[in-house]
Amino acid sequence: MAEATLDGFAAALLSPPPRVAPAGVVNPLGGPAEKRFGVYRNNVAVGLKGALGDIFPVTRDLVGERFFGAMAHEYIEGNPPHSPVLAQYGHGFADFVASFQPARDLPYLADVARLERAWLDAYHARDAAPLDHQGLAGIDGDALMAMALSPHPAARLLEFESAAVTIFKRIKAGAGLKGVDPASPERALVTRPFYEVAVQAIDAADFTFLAAIMNGETLARAAETALATNDDFDLAAGFALLLRSGAIAEEETRC
Fold it and tell me: Ranges for the Putative DNA-binding domain (predicted)?
């Protein structure tokens, strides 16, 4: 097929059912080709819906298969994949969910989808050894505070206006949401120091501290920034969180 024909074919796969088959598509047995093309088109849609369901299983479980299927269908029509790797699909899905009118009564749903996308991105991030106490052996206090630490490739920080972390964990564990205030803001640290992705809620001061470090600030400057927003910030506890969570990469630590 010529390039223009291929573009039309690709567009037709994710558009409403065409009255005629795209240019260049023929029935080898003669006659109309719409029915044969329709089977192929349906297979593509089913595959993309399945991919979205696999990427956002908690989001799907929160609203049910039928609602999620309708939401996924509308997203697919306006957002064709740009990579043959299905795990890369759906980077804009959370923003779509936030604007999806039938989900307007579930303001936390888009946040949960953002957390799920971050989980998958962390899962597929490149490997790196996490920094531990041994990697800092022999460094005195002043030199340590002057260091800038590089984030682990899998580390992600997210800030939500909803209880997305609690909801994510409760649904993954098979528990209900009884007693959960979905409107309670939460912050998430997503890490994968070795083989398993970990998601944890962190407080505002630790979030500010980690965000500053991930933006290239020294430990001293990151601590100052955290203290400026929260007088109760505990540097020792914040630093322990860095090491315990695997949020920092050993081989990329820089002075």
Answer: 9-97
